[in-house]
Specification:
Layout (H helix, E strand, L loop, with lengths): L1 H5 L2 H30 L7 E7 L5 E15 H6 L10 E8 L3 H4 L3 E4 L4 E5 L4 E6 L5 E10 L2 E5 L3 H46 L5 H32 L2 E6 L5 E5 L3 E5 L6 H17 L2 E2 L4 E2 L2 H32 L4 H13 L4 H24 L14 H25 L3 H9 L4 H30 L4 H4 L26 H10 L4 H36 L1 H4 L1
Antiparallel strand pairs: 1-2, 1-5, 2-3, 3-4, 6-7, 6-11, 7-8, 7-9, 9-10, 12-13
Helix pairs in contact: 2-16, 5-6, 8-11, 8-13, 10-11, 11-13, 12-13, 13-16, 15-16
């Protein structure tokens, strides 16, 4: 036994066991997040029951069972509830009743022991709306300009046909407002800035002014045409509506202009539920958010996260490689270089919020403010680069991850055999040529390792971004069809901040809870995809230069 311990085998097995436990914990965590997040998109059954409220009164209850928990009986009795039995604990359901515009709340906590006549009628309808959340009830009739056009069994088919028409009209209006009119407003603002630039420069050339006015008149004429086209579509969009009976027995009329989709979950078969599930999943990754980020999709956050990471990678890689090359290949090893390496290692341990404060003070206010004063005086006092944006966020994260890239690149350079350098110099190559054509290519896997670590850390950072560019809802993406196409001065959305906002700042926490898990899972997937891409490149480079190392 003593010899076995001296051989080191127990420590090998202990390390393997620790790694296995860590892997199992990571898999369990991912499984929990996936189970809680992905189930959010599955169409749940909608129950109807008669509920005898323990606090007095009774009413019809319609909704989805969102969650269930065990509550100690003593805690319920302390709140004045008379329980029917002697159990130690009772199950409590969290029911999503929707209809927030009429009921005043989305959720109710009920005890199943007080529910009677529980059933799941096939005629119960769920309506996803652009405002006020879901509606639960029975479809009564479909209307056109206030006149009934369908009711009874034919109402659902007629409603679906008219909803498709309303969605097509809504898409056309959205395209006119956001894309066409948005582009015209952007061009009008550029003309205003150009005219202001002429004023500041003392340029009173009538030809320049006339050209600006001519372009402005063309844009305004086009704006009036689009405005008229949009206004003509609104009466068509608002033409149709439907009425539904909700749990209180009240008839509610809902315009189709405010409806995203409707479905009858209790009457859906397995194939219908699967189709609905993937439709909701696609909406989640491709659409814009609505209802204070608790409904709709998160495409702007996905786009902002990926773009910020790509910009950060473009900025940090050359800076980190150049610094590492100088420290390893050119700098004379001594006290100063040792102090620089100590400083680099210390920078890796600085809290990320400190980088955010530095980025806000130096990059945004000092550097951005001076850029505005030198290059964008016509826009002042409105800041162009002197305000948080995706450029400053990318630079701040590049500074945060710079020590990781420097250390990894130095390790990669140290792995290149000295004989390779000496052989290249012996063949007549200069030191720069040796470095550029031989050493750096062989050290590229180490550089990619640093980039992988940088991406993994930067993609999940939230604290510094809250100060230097990320917002709850960005009206425009940093990349669009307006010159110069990539707008580095714009604010953006981020998956990490979206999780924080939905989970802790949402006015409807219960509705937002499943979305937190879904967004967390998506953030993990984005980081995994980015890392796998970098790993694939690293492995390719490693195989390419393996023969040189041997």
């Amino acid at each position: 036994m003593k010899g076995w311990f001296k051989s080191g085998s127990p420590w090998v097995w202990l390390s393997a066991a620790a790694v296995s436990v860590c892997i199992l914990l990571v898999v369990a965590l991912l499984g929990l997040i996936a189970a809680r997040g992905l189930v959010f998109f599955w169409p749940k059954q909608v129950l109807q029951a008669h509920y005898q409220d323990p606090s007095g009164g009774s009413y019809r209850l319609i909704g989805e069972i969102q969650d269930a928990e065990e509550i100690p009986a003593g805690r319920l009795r302390e709140s004045g509830i008379e329980l029917p039995g002697d159990e130690d604990s009772y199950t409590r359901y969290l029911i999503k009743t929707g209809n927030r515009d009429t009921l005043g709340m989305d959720f109710r906590s009920v005890l199943p022991d007080f529910m009677e006549k529980v059933e799941y009628p096939a005629g119960l309808m769920v309506v996803e709306r652009r405002e006020w959340g879901n509606l639960y009830g029975y479809l009564k009739e479909v209307r056109e300009n206030g006149q009934t056009v369908a009711q009874g069994d034919s109402a659902a088919a007629e409603l679906q046909r008219r909803l498709e028409r309303a969605l097509e009209l809504f898409g056309r209006i959205r395209h006119i407002e956001k894309d066409l009119i948005g582009s015209i407003n952007y061009q009008l603002e550029q003309l205003r800035l150009e005219e202001r630039r002429l004023d500041l420069g003392g340029d009173h050339d009538p030809a320049s002014r006339a050209a600006i006015e001519a372009r402005r008149k063309d844009l305004q004429d086009r704006y009036e045409e689009l405005q008229k086209e949009r206004n003509d579509l609104f009466p068509q969009l608002n033409r149709d509506s439907f009425t539904a009976e909700i749990m209180t027995g009240q008839l509610v009329e809902v315009p189709l202009a405010k409806v995203v989709r409707f479905y009858f979950p209790n009457a859906m078969g397995p194939l219908d539920k699967i189709g609905h599930y993937f439709g909701k999943l696609w909406e989640f990754v491709s659409d814009e958010p609505r209802e204070a980020n608790t409904e709709g999709g998160i495409f702007p956050a996905i786009f902002g996260t990926v773009m910020m990471v790509l910009l950060m990678s473009v900025l940090v890689t050359p800076c980190g490689v150049v610094a590492a090359v100088y420290l390893r290949e050119y700098a004379r090893q001594g006290l100063i270089v040792r102090l620089i390496r100590i400083a680099v290692n210390n920078l890796a341990g600085v809290p990320s919020i400190v980088y955010g404060v530095f980025g806000l003070g130096f990059f945004v206010y000092f550097l951005g403010g001076n850029i505005d004063a030198l290059f964008y005086p016509e826009a002042l006092p409105s800041p162009t680069f002197g305000t948080p944006g995706i450029l400053w966020s990318s630079i701040t994260l590049a500074l945060l991850t710079l020590p990781v890239v420097i250390v990894a690149t130095e390790e990669g350079l140290a792995r290149v055999p000295r004989s390779i350098r000496e052989g290249s110099l012996a063949l007549g190559a200069t030191k720069a040529e040796t470095l550029w054509r031989t050493v750096l290519p062989m050290a590229s896997p180490g550089m990619m390792t640093g980039l992988i670590l940088a991406v993994a850390r930067a993609a999940g950072e939230v604290a510094p971004l809250m100060l230097v560019g990320v917002v709850k809802l960005a009206p425009s993406l940093p990349l669009d069809g307006n010159p110069p196409f990539l707008h580095l001065d714009r604010k953006f959305m981020h998956l990490g901040f979206h999780i924080y906002d939905v989970g802790f700042q949402s006015p409807n926490v219960e509705a937002a809870r499943p979305l937190v898990y879904a967004t967390s899972l998506l953030l993990i997937l984005v980081i995994v995809v980015l890392n796998l891409t970098a790993i694939r490149i690293r492995n390719h480079l490693r195989e390419k230069y393996r023969s040189l190392e041997s």
